[in-house]
C-alpha cells in the first residue's frame, strides 16, 4: 500500500516538474521579443553645457529652474531614440534602478520575482503587435543606452518596450485582481462622522 502511494506521488511529482520545465521553456520562447532590423548605428556626440544641460546637435536635454526635465529631439525614429538615450542616460539608468528596486520591495521573494517575470513576459508577449513601427524604432534606439545590470530580467529592448506599457499592464493585472493599489475604507463608529470614507494610495 505504502509503495503504491509512494509511486503515485513520485509520478505526480515528475509530471508536475516536467510540466513546469516545459512551461518555462515555452514562455521563454514565446515571450522573447526581438528588436527591429536596423542598419548601422551611430551615436551622437553629447556636450554638457552646464550641470543639468546637455546638447547633441540641434537636440537638447535640461532640467529647468522649476525642477522639471525638458527634452527636444528631432530626426528619424531610430536616430531620435539613440539621441534620447545618450542625452538622458544617467537619468534613464537612475529611473530603471528605482523602478526595479521598488518592485523588489513589493515582491521581496526571489521565487515570486521569477514567476512574475515569466508571467509578465507571457502576458505581454504580443505587445509588439500593438506598437507602431516608428515607436518600436525609437524605443530600440533608447534601449541601447539601458544598463545591462537587468539583462537577467529581459533584453534591454524588451524591458524598455514593457516599461512603456507598464502602466497599462498594471491596470490589466489590476482588472484581473492580481494586484492593486493600497486602499482602505471605514464607516459607522470607525469613521469620524459615521459616513463612508475611502482612501487610496497610488502605489
**Strand order within the widest sheet?**
1-2-3-4
Report, as a whole number of angstroms, the end-to-end distance: 53 Å
Order of helices and strands, N to C?
Answer: HEEEEHHHHHHEE
What is the tally of beta strands? Answer: 6
The chain-level mean pLDDT equals 83
Spatial extent as radius of gyration = 23 Å
Poorly predicted spans: none
Structural class determined from secondary elements: alpha+beta
What is the structure about, briefly put?
The protein is of the alpha+beta class and 203 residues long. It has helices at residues 2-30, 77-87, 89-106, 110-123, 133-143, 156-164, 166-175, and strands at residues 47-50, 53-56, 59-63, 69-72, 182-186, 197-201.
Amino acid at each position: 500500500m505504502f509503495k503504491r502511494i509512494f509511486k503515485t506521488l513520485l509520478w505526480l511529482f515528475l509530471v508536475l516538474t516536467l510540466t513546469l520545465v516545459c512551461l518555462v521553456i515555452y514562455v521563454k520562447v514565446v515571450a522573447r521579443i526581438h528588436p527591429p532590423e536596423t542598419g548601422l548605428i551611430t551615436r551622437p556626440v553629447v556636450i554638457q553645457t552646464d550641470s543639468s544641460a546637455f546638447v547633441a546637435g540641434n537636440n537638447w536635454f535640461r532640467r529647468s529652474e522649476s525642477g522639471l526635465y525638458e527634452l527636444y529631439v528631432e530626426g528619424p525614429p531610430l536616430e531620435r531614440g539613440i539621441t534620447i538615450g545618450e542625452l538622458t542616460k544617467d537619468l534613464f539608468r537612475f529611473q530603471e534602478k528605482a523602478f526595479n528596486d521598488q518592485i523588489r520591495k513589493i515582491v521581496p521573494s526571489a521565487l515570486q520575482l521569477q514567476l512574475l517575470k515569466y508571467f509578465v513576459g507571457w502576458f505581454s508577449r504580443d505587445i509588439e503587435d500593438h506598437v507602431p513601427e516608428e515607436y518600436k524604432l525609437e524605443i530600440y534606439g533608447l534601449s541601447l543606452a539601458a544598463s545591462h545590470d537587468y539583462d537577467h530580467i529581459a533584453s534591454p529592448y524588451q524591458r524598455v518596450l514593457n516599461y512603456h506599457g507598464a502602466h497599462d499592464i498594471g491596470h490589466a493585472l489590476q482588472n484581473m485582481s492580481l494586484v492593486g493599489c493600497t486602499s482602505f475604507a471605514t464607516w459607522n463608529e470607525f469613521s469620524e462622522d459615521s459616513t463612508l470614507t475611502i482612501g487610496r494610495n497610488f502605489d
